[in-house]
Structures are given as structure tokens and as C-alpha cells.
Amino acid sequence: IRCPVKECDEEILHGKYGQHLSSHKEMKERELYSHINKGGRPRQHLLSLTRRAQKHRLRELKRQVKAFAEKEEGGDIKAVCMTLFLLALRAKNEHRQADELEAVMQGRGSGLHPAVCLAIRVNTFLSCSQYHKMYRTVKAVTGRQIFQPLHALRTAEKALLPGYHPFEWKPPLKNVTTNTEVGIIDGLSGLPLSIDDYPVDTIAKRFRYDAALVSALKDMEEEILEGMKAKNLDDYLSGPFTVVVKESCDGMGDVSEKHGSGPAVPEKAVRFSFTVMNIAIACGNESKRIFEEVKPNSELCCKPLCLMLA
């Protein structure tokens, strides 16, 4: 109810109206406006009623909403009521609750996607046990599963590894195995060693080049499609594409133990990787570039081929 006192104009809940009016000392005729309870039971709050009583009290409003929904929204009463509820929450600045309701309405739930949780874990340098501790704490405190459990993160991580996406080369590549399993191997196997080389033992996780390339391109699928859309090349979805790759190898420093009796020769970690520099598409006689790496020297765009301890 809007307060009738001049220069007040405040909106008050029905139950608190009489209390509000009594604060206006200058109001001589305030009994004209105050709510008079004519005996009987006091009017209960809507949310404290049984479902049947709620339906009874709201039947006139429900009829009006139904009529509006059929006329304006194709009979979708649920959408009209949900939107009214959202607007009511946002009008009272209860945006957090409104956001959660909106997420539920859109079928997203209020939890984060496993890939987002994985990105958070990697970018904040959390170990698995640290992340698990945070996951358990948040779940216990809020009573909701906002972060996803570790096994969901591991499943999301697999999609980023070479060998996850099935593919077929046309024409087939010669002398390339079809096996995409990733294993721990001697990182120097297959490389001819000269007499002068220091005898080095290595242990490495090595990916097949073609499997790693397919994984990198699959990871960039959205960027490739956006580039094609920007240049109106939707007709060329089947290519042919030209992919320019820069190969690199960098030492990742001394990874031996820093104190105590470490090995005489410090262990080194080495990473062989490649970066997709640009992707172009041949349309007619000309070649149009649909992707270009903005920061080609950043380690964030390095796709690993072999991670090796020497």
C-alpha cells in the first residue's frame, strides 16, 4: 500500500501499514487509512498457508495470468510466472537469488562446468588435493555442489589430450601408426646419437605428431568457425585448409632436488612442442586467412609433443 501522507509516498507491506502510519505524528485523520481488523482470525501470510488455501486466495490472479498467457505468450503460464518472480526479485535487488533461479530455469543449475573447474584449478596452481579440499569445503558450507569432483575434471582433461578425437587422414599418411595410445617411453628412441653426446637417460611422455595436431585443431574449432563466419566462408567447411605450424623445443630448467645429495648432473626437463601459427583456406585462386596466433611466442599456445626428463 502506498502511504497517503504528503512527501512520503513510501510503499509498505499490508501487515506493517498501521505501524508505519503511527510514525507520522502530524497525521490527524490517520484512522481513516489504517487497516481495521473486523474480528475473526488475522489474515495469514500467503507463504504460511497450505497449498489449497494458497490456490483459493490466488484464484482470481491465476485466472488473469492464464488469460494473459493465452493471449500474449502462447499459453505458457510457467514462463509468465517465472518472469514475474525474476522481476520481483531484481526490483528488490536480490540479484544473486535471481541469477540462481535463472540458471535453474535454463537447465544449467548453479554448478560450474567441469572444464571451467579444470581451468580454475590450473590457473590458480592448485594441486589435486588442494582442489579437492576446496571442493569439499564449499559443498559442506553452501550445501550445494558448485565445484565439480576431481573425477569429472579428469574426464574433462582427457578431451584435451592427443588421441582423444577419432580422425582419418585422406589420403592416408604413409609410415604412420594408427595407434593413438599415449605411453611412457625413452624420449630419445629413434634419434641417432653421435659419439660425442653425453650418455643421457631419458623418460618421456611422447605423443604421435598427427594425433597431437588433430587434437590442437579440434581444440581451436570455435576460433576456426568464427574466422570463417567473419569472412563469409561458410561454403568452404570441407576445406581445403592450409595449417602453418612452428615447431619448438625448450628446456624447462633444473628439476633436480635443490637440497641434500642430489645427482651429480642436474636433471633437466625438456619439452618438444608446436604452435599453430595460422590457418588459411583456399577459395578459388586466392587464399584467405581465417586464424592467426596473436602471441606466437607465448607458452600458452604451445601444444606438447613430448615431455621429457633427461
List keywords for this structure.
310 residues; alpha+beta; 3 domains; six-stranded antiparallel β-sheet; 9 helices; 6 strands; 35% helix; 16% strand; elongated; transferase; sequence-specific DNA binding; nuclease; hydrolase; zinc ion binding
Protein described:
By secondary structure, the chain is of the alpha+beta class. It folds into 3 domains: 59-106, no CATH class; 114-159, no CATH class; 184-309, no CATH class. Helix content is 35%, strand content 16%. It is built from 9 helices and 6 strands. It has helices spanning 17-21, 51-72, 77-91, 95-105, 114-123, 128-142, 150-158, 209-219, 221-230, and strands at residues 183-185, 203-206, 241-254, 268-283, 286-292, 303-309. Strands 1, 2, 3, 4, 5 and 6 form a 6-stranded antiparallel sheet that branches. Helix 3 (77-91) runs antiparallel to helix 4 (95-105) and helix 5 (114-123) crosses helix 7 (150-158). The radius of gyration is 33 Å and the shape is elongated. It starts with 16 loop residues before the first helix and ends with a strand. The model has no long low-confidence stretch (mean pLDDT 81).
Q: What is the structure about, briefly put?
A:
The protein is an alpha+beta fold and 310 residues long.
Distance between the termini: 78 Å
Please identify the structural class as seen in this structure.
Answer: alpha+beta
The helix/strand order is HHHHHHHEEHHEEEE
As residue ranges, the low-confidence spans are none
Total count of helical runs of at least 4 residues = 9
- What is the count of β-strands? 6
Kindly state the mean pLDDT as a whole number?
A: 81
Helix percent reads 25-40%
